[in-house]
Amino acid sequence: MTYALVAALSTACAVWLWTAPAIADTRLTKLTTVRRRPQWQALAERLTRPTPARRADAWRRASVELCHALSAELSAGRTPGEALARAISAVDFPEPEALRPIVAAAKDGSDVSAALLSSAPSQGGEGLRQLAACWNVSVTVGAGLAALVERVASTLRAAQAHRQDVAAQLAGPRTTARMLAVLPALGLLMAGALNMRPLSFLFGSLPGLVCLISGIALDVCGLWWTNRMADQAQG
What we know:
Elements lengths: L1 H18 L3 H10 L6 H10 L3 H24 L4 H11 L9 H9 L3 H8 L6 H16 L3 H49 L4 H7 L1 H29 L1
Helix pairs in contact: 4-5, 4-8, 4-9, 5-6, 6-7, 7-8, 8-9, 9-11, 10-11
């Protein structure tokens, strides 16, 4: 009996060693297998991703800093291409990889104006487009680039101050709209505290469901319309 058991175990071990994958292959597979990110990590990245308005504001601020840095580099006596490359490296842009064609064009002596226009984002790229116009005027007419860049910087700075002023004035209406959107939930809590059973009416009858759906739709539309008007005014 003992010999039969030992023989069976030996046979099973031999079969397992013969058919099982090699340890080195298993470790290599684990190392080369791409692990998927957890869903919570992907959701956190989506929530922390800047909104288009914040991204545009970051581009505008970086454009103002770029104009100031470029003006300083030009005043120091550097060539336009070298000054632009150094100014871009000194400014923290939201998407630095988008400016690589500009740096390459500035170092190679190719069309910098076209590179600025192609790299400028649709929202927040006004500074780069105005800088491209200044560069084109400086190349074709021979005007002083430092003076043109300084004018663009002052214009962008004034526009940024105006947008900040408008945003500060619109903070009150935005807050009021959010408070008004929360008031229906507060009314439900007060009705529940008075034993009026609002949830039974809203979820337990057809008129209640109609009122609930209509109220939520009007609340969402009000918030959307308020934010839309504020964005257009801040524009």
